[in-house]
């Protein structure tokens, strides 16, 4: 349990770190792109005005298209009002088609900068401005800048951060595992101590209880005690001691199961025989309540498991069936080998039944549906908890089907 919690905590911590890293790197990357392009845009807006003014002067002279040479990553195209190209500083060849297409589509904003992330990692920013002369519009200039390299740089940096984050994540995982171990260890020690205490206490209580029991027996059978009142008192004491011995025994079983102190003694054994035996043993108790136990178990079912534990499990189920079925009821015990070679046996009664909410809880320790009734019957609510431990130990399953007032069926499947 603690081992699992430790792993769960470490994984939870690492995944949280992963989410934080992922969000931070993504935001950092987008932030960097924003910073790069906004600075470039500012520069572009500053330059476009100068170019428009220069073009205005040039356009007064002659109107032959003229290449004004390549500028550091910047390019511009100046058109007159007829849409004829007048002056230009060409975009790099691999970008030019895209630039002209954008201009043609009218996608370039005036006096504002748009960023276009094109295919093949091409990124550019571009703006447009009117060319005016004496407050008259005489043309349009488009000014752009290729910022692909800056973007590629930013992307590379993001990958670098990603690698760093990966290393940090591995460290976070190791750290998370170590820290959760630090948190869990004291709890585990405390829990272990408490378990040991329960085991020791129940063990130590057994001897005095058996001494009290045999003393009470002795007194009960002593002919010198004749008073019927005293006899009754002694009988009551015996009854209580019996209940207490059972409780202490159950507690010891649970504590030992928790400590994994009791190894399962696995071997092939005759499950049919065990079922018959438990039914036989419970017959007298059932008869007292005029309950009929039908033994529908076929012969020859061989099971691989711990015979004593499985017998204890069957006893717990049949004991409950008898306890929680009113007089003149009927209990059916059956078993079969399933197609997938699993063994399934069930104990069905037509007793008081369980509601949905209780069905989920009856396997908890000390859980009893009707405390008063259960206690009067000598129950402490540990039977099914022990049964569950036994089934878990055998890697099996237990199913409960029940209807309030109609009856309950417990079915156990063992591999
Ligand atoms: P113990 O078995 O320790 O003597 P218990 O019988 O009260 O005490 P469990 O066997 O763990 O404890 O059962 C838990 C509760 O589940 C019972 O108190 C009872 O209310 C309910 N229960 C168990 N078996 C049946 C059944 N066959 N029909 C109806 N209720 C049941
Ligand atoms: Mg019980």
How would you portray this structure in words?
The protein folds into 2 domains: 2-154, Beta-Lactamase (2-Layer Sandwich); 266-414, Heat Shock Protein 90 (2-Layer Sandwich). The longest helix has 73 residues, at 148-220. A hairpin with a 2-residue loop joins strand 5 and strand 6. The two termini are 23 Å apart. With 415 residues, it is an alpha+beta fold. It has a 6-stranded mixed beta sheet, sandwiched between helices. Helices cover 56% and strands 20% of the residues. The chain contains 9 helices and 13 strands. Adenosine-5'-triphosphate (ATP) binds at residues 250, 316, 320-321, 323-324, 349, 351-354, 362, 367-370, 374, 379-385, 408. Residues 250, 316, 320-321, 323-324, 349, 351-354, 362, 367-370, 374, 379-385, 408 line the site of adenosine-5'-triphosphate (ATP).
């Amino acid at each position: 349990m603690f081992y699992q919690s430790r792993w769960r905590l470490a994984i939870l911590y690492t995944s949280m770190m992963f989410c934080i890293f992922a969000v931070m790197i993504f935001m950092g990357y987008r932030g960097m792109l924003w910073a790069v392009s906004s600075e470039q845009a500012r520069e572009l807006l500053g330059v476009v005005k100068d170019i428009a003014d220069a073009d205005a002067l040039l356009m007064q002279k002659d109107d032959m298209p003229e290449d004004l040479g390549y500028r550091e990553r910047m390019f511009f195209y100046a058109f007159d009002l007829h849409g004829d190209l007048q002056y230009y500083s060409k975009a790099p060849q691999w970008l030019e088609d895209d630039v002209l297409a954008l201009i043609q589509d009218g996608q370039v904003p005036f006096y504002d900068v748009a960023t276009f992330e094109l295919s093949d990692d091409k990124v550019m920013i571009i703006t447009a401005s009117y060319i005016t002369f004496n407050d008259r519009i005489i043309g349009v200039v488009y000014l752009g800048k290729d910022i692909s390299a800056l973007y590629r740089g930013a992307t590379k940096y993001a990958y670098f951060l990603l690698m760093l984050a990966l290393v940090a994540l591995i460290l976070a995982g190791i750290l998370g595992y170590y820290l959760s171990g630090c948190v869990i260890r004291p709890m585990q020690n405390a829990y272990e101590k408490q378990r040991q205490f329960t085991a020791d206490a129940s063990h130590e209580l057994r001897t005095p209880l058996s001494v009290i029991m045999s003393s009470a027996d002795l007194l009960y059978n002593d002919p010198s005690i004749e008073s019927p009142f005293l006899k009754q008192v002694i009988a009551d004491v015996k009854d209580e001691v019996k209940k207490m011995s059972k409780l202490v025994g159950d507690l010891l079983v649970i504590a030992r199961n928790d400590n994994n102190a009791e190894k399962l003694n696995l071997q092939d054994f005759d499950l049919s025989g065990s079922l018959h035996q438990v039914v036989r043993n419970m017959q007298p108790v059932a008869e007292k309540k005029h309950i009929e136990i039908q033994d529908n178990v076929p012969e020859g079912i061989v099971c691989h498991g711990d015979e004593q534990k499985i017998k204890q499990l069957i006893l717990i189920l049949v004991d409950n069936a008898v306890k929680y079925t009113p007089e003149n009821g009927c209990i059916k015990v059956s078993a079969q080998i399933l197609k997938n070679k699993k063994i399934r046996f069930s104990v069905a009664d037509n007793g008081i039944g369980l509601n949905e909410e209780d069905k989920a809880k009856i396997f908890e320790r000390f859980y009893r549906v009707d405390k008063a009734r259960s206690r009067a019957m000598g129950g402490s609510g540990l039977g099914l908890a022990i049964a569950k431990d036994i089934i878990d130990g055998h890697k099996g399953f237990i199913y409960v089907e029940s209807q309030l007032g109609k009856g309950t069926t417990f079915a156990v499947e063992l591999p």
